[in-house]
Amino acid sequence: MRKVIFDTDTASDDAIALMLALDFFEVVGVTIVAGNVKYENEVNNALFTLEYLGKSDIPVFLGARRPILGQWRTVEEVHGKNGFGDWEYPKSSKKPESEFAVDAIIRLSKEYNGELEILAVSPLTNIALAYLKDSHIANRIKKIWVMGGAFSRGNTTELAEFNFWVDPEAVDIILNAGFNITIVPWEVAEETATITDEEWDKIEKIRSKRSEFFIRVNRTLREYSKSVGSKGSVHPDSLTVTIAYDNSLIAEKINKYVTVDLCSKSRGAMLIDWYNLKKSKPNAEIVTKVDSLKFKKYLFEALSKA
Question: What is the pTM of this model?
Fold first, then answer.
């Protein structure tokens, strides 16, 4: 199986994405980064998810507790106060590792030189710090799958998607480091990875341990998504992990030179050089269309497992 690091600010959809990653890949480590909710809740959510899914042997490494520069806010209104829809789940007996996540990323990139991939479904702070400490990591990492950015319909500001908005400096570092990157933007997820009311009802009727987990952790996400105009709960992280596993989900993609705005009201906005105005070599593959039915088939199959 392909070896991956799952880099996460563990809240509702992150947990489902982690479940899929455990099915699709050999997860050699889970690294936690500041983002969605209070840091301690992100850690607890990751530990509980692994224990709940019977994967307590997978190490969890604690990473950056803040972005590189600037300030951000957590979004408990999206995921619930604890990030898991306010589910009062039992405290996990699993403990995080003592090794700093940045050091673990560097070490694992050497241990699995040329074959390690990163599922980056969160702000890119940990990965950027790993690159700043060891720039050769860009040559050792096979691929980074990034959930982030928006073409023009931001979910945090008018233009910025949350992960890019939290730490745009980290995005800028990663985009200019020479990594092999595929980006799954927000609009693609909203259009193809939204669980409608009808689909939600179907998941409730599965009545498996995993489907119950899905319903519990995503309750607040569903309510919030619908309150801002979506047709149901949106699952960008799960979509990104599934695309990483099966590239045939990608119906259309482009290769472009991508940057990110670091200042003003558009801070965190993804900037695409559509017409090669800068005459720069493309630095990222961007997914523009996805097979929604295929994604949801994978999701429902995973949720139906015992």
Answer: 0.98
